[in-house]
Design goal:
alpha/beta; 4 domains; five-stranded mixed beta sheet; 7% strand; elongated
Length: 410
């Protein structure tokens, strides 16, 4: 029987030595390899294998499945395609899958050994795009077989840089005001709009060969930042006028981040000066609770503004009274009217009646109207001592205080 040297088997020496001494007897004890050396070799081989798998864009680890969380919120259309596409691309690049989407890793032939791995990876990327798109959008791309086709279809559909979108975005930028927002929230909104505009109108790239040295791109970038600083300052409330004038006279202007920090410091200074009161103040009427931009008496009431009950947080009291009878009745036969006056806003409701017996029905209907439309209960009703307002049981059931005065008195 052929006996091989144990040391040859362990050390992995060449086959020539085995063939030279096929029947050489073993006259010495076997060479023992340290377990620590074997463990280090196995770890080294394992790390090398894992490194190769991670660098392979077609490799899918156990944590990558269709339910993997990548981006939020999902794609809904033109409104958020810009931010969604950036977030999705960053996630795919982190997972080393973007090369499948941009076409760097092409689809192999069905006969090649890598086709199965490419197909699994391609379907996994498609499932991620479907999951993080609105259901109606996902239905429109569900039948595409390649992730590259899906991505290009969404890009052509929602990444349209047309003059109408640019015009709309410019109008939104110039119309943005701070209002009741803090400086931080206002700056965040401005920054979002500016980045969206930079996406629609990216910075130009010099194509001169050889590259010119005029630094024109730096000047364009600087002027764009100056425009952003001016728009940011102009949108601040009037209480920041001293800050606006102080910054705009500087030459050169500080960068955008320094202006933002200056505005935040100014905000904190005013906050401390007002004793920690964050209530906004109108510079037109001097009252708190609104700004001059939303002062309806100056700019006019909005088309959908509906006057109504304004006693929220107050006493929520109303005054009721009856007038009549008229000498001449109306076309509907009414000869009386019930007046209801809000104690806080002095707003008046008027209800025509054919007789005074309709009073209690109208009061019940009015209480339901106020509760439904304004979410407020009436706590106090003031009237004279007329029998038409004798609703003791109803007022007690609803917890309403009935204040009465003498008949025929205000």
């Amino acid at each position: 029987m052929t006996r091989y040297n144990y040391a040859v088997v362990v050390s992995g020496t060449s086959e020539s030595s085995q063939r030279t001494h096929p029947t050489a007897p073993v006259n010495h004890s076997p060479v023992q390899t340290s377990p620590m050396i074997n463990l280090q070799r196995n770890l080294t081989l394992q790390r090398s294998s894992n490194s190769e798998d991670i660098e392979n864009p077609l490799f899918l680890n156990s944590n990558e499945n269709p339910n993997t969380i990548l981006v939020s919120p999902p794609l809904t259309g033109n409104a958020n395609y810009g931010t969604w596409s950036i977030s999705m691309r960053v996630s795919l690049e982190v997972k080393n899958k973007w090369s499948v989407v941009d076409g760097s890793v092409t689809s192999p032939d069905r006969t090649q050994a890598q086709y199965a791995a490419w197909r699994r990876c391609n379907l996994m990327i498609c499932s991620w795009i479907f999951k993080y798109s609105h259901p109606s959008i996902a239905q429109s791309i569900m039948y595409m077989n390649k992730a590259k086709e899906v991505w290009n279809d969404l890009k052509k559909r929602f990444s349209q840089c047309d003059p109408h979108r640019i015009s709309s975005l410019q109008s939104e930028i110039y119309a943005l005001k701070q209002g009741n927002l803090s400086v931080y929230d206002y700056y965040t909104k401005c920054r979002t709009l500016w980045e969206h505009m930079n996406e629609l109108r990216p910075m130009l790239i010099c194509r001169c060969d050889p590259r010119c040295s005029c630094n024109l791109l730096d000047k364009i970038r600087s002027e764009r930042e100056i425009d952003q600083i001016i728009r940011f300052l102009q949108g601040l409330n009037e209480e920041y006028n001293s800050l606006k004038s102080g910054v705009l006279v500087l030459d050169p202007l500080p960068n955008m981040h320094k202006v933002f920090v200056m505005a935040e410091k100014f905000e904190r200074k005013n906050f401390n000066a007002n004793g920690g009161n964050k209530a906004t103040k109108c510079t037109f009427c001097g009252m708190t609770g609104h700004t001059v931009e939303k002062y309806y008496k100056k700019h006019g009431y909005p088309p959908d503004w509906v006057p109504g009950y304004k006693s929220k947080g107050k006493q929520q009291a109303v005054h009721v009274d009856i007038w009549g009878p008229f000498l001449v009745q109306s076309f509907g036969g009414e000869r009386y009217f019930l007046t209801i006056v809000d104690d806080h806003s002095r707003y008046i409701w008027l209800h025509l009646m054919r007789n005074t017996f309709e009073t209690q029905v109208l009061i019940r209907q009015f209480l339901k109207f106020v509760h439904t439309q304004f979410g407020l209960p009436i706590k106090t009703i003031s009237s004279d001592n007329g029998l038409e307002f004798n609703m003791v049981e109803f007022f007690a059931e609803n917890g309403i205080v009935h204040q009465k005065s003498c008949v025929n008195t205000p």
